[in-house]
Specification:
The protein is an alpha/beta fold and 242 residues long. The chain has two domains: 71 residues, no CATH class; 128 residues, Nucleotidyltransferase, domain 5. It is built from eight helices and nine strands. It has a five-stranded mixed sheet with strand order 7-6-5-8-9, with helices on both faces. A two-stranded antiparallel sheet has the order 1-2. Helix 6 links the parallel strand 8 and strand 9. Helix 5 crosses helix 6.
Length: 242
């Protein structure tokens, strides 16, 4: 005896299938971008979509809304979080507009360190650059505290031997430079110290760029001579003869 199919049950299954297809079509008409989930043609405030899209430009916000087929309304407001996120340091001048012509009148000084220790035990590189001639003077130190003694001796030698008196020194506000200023006052050298503002290496850019330029030239010479920066120079070994 065969199984009897009731017509009412067939209609119910067809109706259930049609409902599933309708739900599927509705889901297709939705657009999801980040936290935004709206149907086509829905109205949304421009400030709401602007925040949910990560606060892009107004034009980008409108174009994105049009792409998502949304009706954007309202006027964009100024967002404090957006302004804070776009905040950056104000541009500062790299140096004086008029260059000095008197040698030794002003010097730029700074200190950097190396990840290696030289054969002589030096780890720090102190550099002084004359503003007028861009003459560079390097001193290699074992400790930062040696800056005061070594550089004061150099300043006295310039003044008494070569007749060049340094009147201004520009440097950052590090403790070693404060100690150097005290030593210059104690030795009555009459030097005025100009300290740069915190976080503004542009104000001492002459010596900052000198470090990069001289280090690049040194590495180029070492590579051309067959030296290995880590194993040969800093360990005191001779390069292989080829």
């Amino acid at each position: 005896m065969g199984m009897e199919i009731v017509p009412d049950k067939i209609d119910e299954k067809k109706k259930e299938k049609d409902n599933k297809n309708n739900d599927k079509n509705k889901n297709i008409e939705k657009r999801e971008k980040g936290n935004i989930s709206t149907e086509i043609g829905a109205k949304i405030d421009i400030n709401e979509i602007h925040e949910k899209l990560g606060q892009p430009e107004e034009e980008v916000t409108k174009l994105t809304g049009n792409y998502m087929k949304l009706k954007i309304k309202g006027k964009m407001e100024n967002f404090e979080n957006f302004a804070i996120g776009k905040m950056r340091q104000k541009n500062v001048e790299k140096g004086p507009k008029k260059k000095l012509t008197k040698p030794g009148y002003c010097m730029y000084i700074d200190l950097t360190s190396s990840k290696y220790i030289s054969a002589g035990g030096s780890k720090y590189w102190f550099l002084a650059v004359d503003e007028a001639t861009h003459m560079k003077f390097s001193v290699f130190l074992n400790q930062k505290s040696e800056v005061k003694e070594r550089f004061v001796t150099f300043l006295k030698e310039l003044q008494h031997t070569y007749g060049v008196k340094v009147e201004h020194i520009r440097c950052d506000n590090a403790g070693r430079n404060r100690a150097l200023e005290d030593a210059c006052i104690e030795k009555d050298l009459g030097i005025i110290f100009e300290y740069t503002a915190p976080g503004t290496p542009q104000q001492n850019g002459v010596v900052e760029r000198a470090f990069v330029t001289m280090l690049g030239k040194t590495r180029a010479i070492m590579n051309g001579s067959g030296f290995d920066e880590k194993n040969d120079i800093y360990s005191g070994q001779k390069p292989p003869i080829q």
